[in-house]
UniProtKB/TrEMBL annotation:
Entry keyword Ubl conjugation: no
Organism: Haladaptatus paucihalophilus DX253
Top-level taxon in the UniProt lineage: Archaea
GO biological process, one term: amino acid transport
The protein's name: ABC-type transport system permease protein (Probable substrate glutamine)
Amino acid sequence: MAETYTERGIERPTDGETGWLNDRRVRWLGIAIAGVFSLGVAFFLLLILTQFVDYQLLVTILPQFIDALLLVLQIILISGVLSLTFGVMVGLGRVSQTGFTQRIATLYVEFFRGTPLLFQLFVVYLGVPAFWPPGQFPLQNWSFAAAIIGLTLNHTAYIGEAVKGGINSVSGGQSEAARSLGMSYIDSMRYVVLPQAWRNALAAIGNDLVILVKDTSLLTVLAIPELISVFRNVNSATFDAWTPIVVVSVAYLVITVPLGKLVRTMEERSMWGTER
């Protein structure tokens, strides 16, 4: 039988104090580590911005990166809307009571989550034109369309899984109660289950949209003049690495930081109706 602190003649430690590693020391240790890290990052950024960035070159190349950023935003907007639309359909298919529909949706998700996005882009970009005789493929700007299709197919699978998780997190009793009130299956999903599922899946969907932004960097292999393609061209022409690196970093943060803030705001607003 284990001895108590009193039986051992040892003073019982108060809450938060268990020897040297107590709450107060852990808190100050965390502050110290964060402070050292912040100083290191600040020094590194200051060094890069003052010693390695060519501001004359930056002004020269900025229009190229603005064009690339606008192209990336266009791709993100189209792929994001399509992925959300089809992702809801796939999520509904994953929880469908029809076995055939559920199996097809599952196969779709398993394939596009189980194979690399880069491979999927090549399948679309190179595989689809192979159905036509050489030189007779009808679409001239196929690389842009292939990028939209590839990103949409991939992220539809991930958003579909997020929607499925959101639906499964809603108590089955609510759907049964809706059906007992005379609602059809479609109406119960539309008015009862899906609004709650959306709230539960919003964080995962938001994270996937941020990943979609970063996945556009892979489109350089399709010869699309996005941010990474412009970075590579500038670097090969000027042998300057850090100037385009800084521009690309800022460009991605211009997209991802507001997007993350928007998702957090939507999460907070969606929780207002559940608070008491």
